[in-house]
Amino acid sequence: MNLPRHLSRDLIDSLLKRVSLDSAREHRATPLTAPFTGATIAEVPRCDPDDVAWAARRARRAQKSWRKTSIAERGRVFMRLHDLVLDRQEQLLDLIQLESGKARRHAFEEVLDTAICSRYSARAARRHLRSESRQGALPFLTRTRVNHLPLGLVGFIAPWNYPLSLAVTDAIPALLMGNAALLKPDQQTPLTALFVAALLEEAGLPADLFQVVTGEGRELGTPLLDAVDGVTFTGSSQTGAIIARQAGERLIGASLELGGKNAMIVRRDADLDRAVQGALVGCFANAGQLCISIERIFVHAAIADEFTRRLAQGVNAMRLGAGFDDEADMGSLVSAAQLDKVTRHVRDALDKGARLIAGGHARPDLGPWFHEPTVLEGVDSSMEVFAEETFGPLASLYRFDSDEEAIERANDTRYGLNASLWTRDTRRALDMARRIEAGTVNINEPYAAAWASVDAPMGGFKASGLGRRHGREGFLKYAQAQTVAVQRIMPVSQLVGGDGGRYRRWMSRAIALLKWLPGID
Ligand code: NAD
C-alpha cells in the first residue's frame, strides 16, 4: 500500500522488530488494516504466553537498576520525550491516522496530551513521590515517615481509540516511580505503541524497561496478569470486569478506565452558540470513539427548538475525509465492527420511532468504515442506543424542564465517566456538579478542560472504572506505601513500666490529653 508522506516501509519494518519476541522461533502474524482504505499495512507478529513471560523477565531485570536512579534523572528522560513527541509529530500523526483512521486534528490531541503528561509528570514526580513526614503515634516520641516504593513491573492493556495517549501516558508515572512497564496495545493499533517505545529509548529510557507485546487480548491478557505486580487497563467495562476478577485472584491492584454514556446538560441560560459548538466537538471528536465523548444531550425545553436547529446546521456542515492533512472535521471509524454497531443503533432507534435530526448514513464513498455524524430525537428506553454505549458518531437529544430532572436523567445510566454542563450561572453549575454521578464534570466545555487538568484525578464512577489516572492519585497507584516509625526513648508499651493497670491508667490519660493539644489530629 501507499504510505503517507512522513512514513516509510523501512520505518514500519524497524518498528515491528521492537515487538518483544522470545527467540527467533516462528510466530503467527496478523494483517494490520488501514481504516481509510481497507488495505493491509503490515503483518504484525502475534505474541504468545511465552513471549509475555520472556518480556516480563527482561523488564524486571532492567527495573533493578532503574529503581536506583534518582527521580531527577528519570524526569530528564520524560522531558526529552516531551520534546521528541512535539518534534516528530508529523510522523506520529501519519502513523496514528494510518492505523486508526481518525482525522489529523484528533490525532494531534494525542500529541498534545502526551506532551502535557510528560512535562507534568517529569516536573511533579518529586512532589508526589518523595518520602513524607506524618503525625507519629506519640508527639515528640514517635517520628513517622512514609516511603513510596515501586511495585516492580506494571502491566498496561490499552485500546485502539487513542493509540498514542493511552499506550504511554499511564505508563509515564509508573516509570517515573521506578517501575518497569509491559504494554499490550490493541491489535488494531500496535505500530504507534512501538513508535513510542522507540521514542522512549531515544529519550534515554534504559533498554528493556518498556516492553511491548502484540496480539489478541483474549490470548495475552491472562499471561500478562500472571507476570505483573499491578495492572492498568483501559477499554470496555465488560473486559474491565474480567481483568478485575483475574487481578483479584492474584491479589494485585487493578486500575480500570472503562466505558461511558456521557451526558451534556444545556441550561436555559447557556450561551447557545458556544453550547452548540461544544456539542459538535463533544459528540464527534474522534468520530465519537472517545470514552469521555457526549452521547446524550439534555436541552432545556425553552431553548430546545433553536438549539436543535443550530446543531443540525453544524452537523450538516462538518467535513468528513480520509486525508493525511488538516482538512477533515471527522475521519473514519476504526473497523467494520464499530461501523456495524453505529448502524445497528441508528436502525434500531429509527425502527422504534426515533427521528433523525442530522446524518444517519454510512459513507462507503469515502472509505469502507465512514459514518456520518448523527443526532437522533425521540429516543426512549426500548431502543438500544438509550443505555448502551455506542462509541461512535451518534448522539441522542432529549428535552428537560428543570435542573433536578436534568440531573436525574443524566444519572440514569450504569456509567459515570464524564459530564458536561452549559450555563452562565457558575455557582449553580458548581452546585449541580456535586449531584452528577461522574468522575469529571466540565462546565462550559465538553471534555478537554478536566481531562487536560492533569494535576487532578480522572476516572469513572459506577461501571466506568476503578482507580484514577492523572495527578497524585495517578502516581501513587504505582507505589507501595511503606510507613517507617522511629520510636525514641523506649517502646510505646514500656513507657510507664511493666504494670498492666498502671499502663492502662497512664495511657488513657495521655490519649485523652491529646484531644486538647493544638496541632494534633
Ligand atoms: P476492549 O475491552 O475490547 O479492548 C481493550 C483492550 O483490551 C485491547 O487491548 C484488547 O486487546 C484487550 N482485551 C480484550 N479482551 C481481553 C481479555 N479477555 N483479557 C485481556 N485483555 C483483553 O475495548 P474496545 O472496545 O477495544 O475499546 C473501547 C472501549 O474502551 C469503550 O468502552 C471505551 O469507552 C473504553 N475506553 C475507556 C477509556 C477511559 O479512559 N475510561 C479510554 C478509552 C476507551
Q: Fraction of residues in helices?
A: 40-55%
Task: State the strand order across the main sheet.
Answer: 12-13-14-11-10-16-17
CATH class of the largest domain: Alpha Beta
Classify the fold: give the CATH topology of the largest domain: Aldehyde Dehydrogenase, Chain A, domain 1
Main sheet: strands, sense, barrel: 7 strands, mixed
Categorize the overall geometry.
globular
Instruction: Name the CATH superfamily assignment of the largest domain.
Output: Aldehyde Dehydrogenase, Chain A, domain 1
SS-based structural class? alpha/beta
Q: Number of helix segments? A: 19
Unique ligands: nicotinamide-adenine-dinucleotide
CATH architecture of the largest domain: 3-Layer(aba) Sandwich
- The poorly predicted ranges are none
CA-atom Rg in angstroms = 26 Å
Overall average pLDDT:
97
Could you say how many structural domains there are in total? Answer: 2
Distance between the termini: 67 Å
Q: What portion of residues belong to β-strands? A: 15-25%
Query: Based on DSSP secondary structure assignment, what is the total number of beta strands?
Result: 20
